[in-house]
Amino acid sequence: MAEDLHKRICLVEDDPHVARLIGATLRDFGFAHDWRRTGADLLRLLRSGEVPDLCIVDLGLPDMDGMELVRALRSDGRCGVLILTGRGDTIDRVMGLELGADDYMVKPFEPRELIARVRSILRRCTAPRDATPLPLSTVAEFAGWRFAPGSNTLSSADGESSTLSTAEAQLLKTMLQHPNRILTREQLMGERNLSSFDRSIDVRISRLRRKLEDDPQNPKLIKTVYGAGYLFACAVVWR
Which molecular function GO terms apply here (predicted)? Predict the structure, then answer.
């Protein structure tokens, strides 16, 4: 796809052989990428102001645990994150998604699946073409909260602010643009054929509930409509 050429992908992988394989796969499908061997290398890149559209992160890095890097990327909140690792344990997968990763893949990988997941994350991080772009100064107000999609900033009534991950911010923005309306998991994820085994949307909903709800176990804002999807049960004012 021509638009893929304009996406900036950074691969964080300490094994040169694996990095070459991943890099070749990305190039074959029209994606340019930068390679960083350590987490520190990526953090230096971010501090320079050169923020990729997507970071593909290995968990077994020589200078830090990849989970620490995912946590740092989540706090920065400006790019998508795909974990690509040899760790296949469920606890690692859940922890990675809880920390803010957009997706999780286990090595060895199938090239077309990797590209499909890369494209999926990039679509989520990009505003839908049929949606009216929101000015950077626009904020949404609801139930005492303020959300600024231009900076992924969520602020409470007492003035405390936090920066959402790209995935969390995109999910919240979608719900805020369609309040009091049931949205399917596919609509929330921007996917037409979402696997019934893909629970990443549920993890993100859970994270947002912990931030927004007084009692996340009995949510009043983000309601589950069993068999249908989720509903944001609140009036929203955009300013």
Answer: phosphorelay response regulator activity; transcription cis-regulatory region binding
What pLDDT, on a 0 to 100 scale, did the predictor assign at position 159? 85
Do the strands 153-155 and 161-163 form a parallel or antiparallel pair, or are they unpaired?
Answer: antiparallel
Is residue 127 scored above 50 in pLDDT? no
Q: Which amino acid, one-letter code, is at 57? A: V
Q: Name the pTM for this structure.
A: 0.62
What 3-state class would DSSP assign to 156? coil
Longest Cα–Cα distance of the chain, Å, equals 52
Higher model confidence: residue 194 or residue 88?
A: 88
Cα 181 versus chain centre, distance: 23
DSSP state of 157: T
| Distance separating the N- and C-terminal Cα atoms of the chain | 36
CATH of domain 140-238: 1.10.10.10
- Domain 2-124 is found in CATH 3.30.950.10: no
Q: What is the pLDDT of residue 3?
A: 46
Pairing mode of beta strands 153-155, 33-36: unpaired
Rounded Cα–Cα distance for residues 107 and 85 (Å): 6
Please report, for the chain, the start and end positions of each structural domain, with discontinuous segments joined by +: 2-124, 140-238
